[in-house]
Design brief:
two-stranded antiparallel sheet, Rossmann fold, 6 helices, alpha/beta, 5 strands, ribosome binding, GTPase_HflX, GTP binding
Length: 151
């Protein structure tokens, strides 16, 4: 039960680390739950959580419910759970309806459909979690403010 970790630079320039935890299992025996829980330590520490659902699986809805039950079982707060980004994957091969969630994004990892939207949403939440705000400034190149920024 291992995880895969990758470095990534968001459009804002922030460097982040993506950690892909193992897939969720239904009806996990209690003797395995402790080991499974250890691999999910990354989830509890994450600034942003992304739940990628496989829409090509006929049981994707039940699997999604299992994910949320597991997240509650490891102690994730309702607030953290409500902030999860939901990415519905494999939209290129199925026409499953989008479950009405305020943050669901339809994607295809194969065709890249929706991936930029997902990355943008991640960037927004990382900035919010870090307390940073994005500002757009229009300054004349010869202004004292630009000179100050170059110092």
């Amino acid at each position: 039960m291992s995880t895969l970790t990758r470095n990534f630079r968001l459009p804002s320039g922030r460097r982040v680390v993506f950690t892909d935890t193992i897939g969720f299992l239904s009806d996990l025996p209690m003797q395995l739950f402790a080991a499974f829980q250890a691999t999910l330590a990354h989830v509890k520490l994450a600034d942003v959580i992304i739940h990628i659902r496989d829409l090509s699986n006929p049981d994707w809805s039940a699997q999604s419910e299992d994910v949320y039950k597991t997240l509650k079982a490891i102690g994730l707060s309702e607030k953290r759970i409500s902030d999860i980004i939901v990415a519905d994957n494999k939209v290129d091969v199925c026409d499953a309806p989008l479950v009405p969630t305020s943050n669901a994004i339809r994607i295809s990892c194969k065709t890249s459909e929706g991936v930029q939207t997902l990355i943008q949403r991640i960037d927004e939440l990382v900035l919010r979690a870090s307390g940073c705000k994005r500002r757009k400034l229009e300054l004349k190149f010869s202004s004292p403010a630009v000179a100050y920024l170059y110092k």
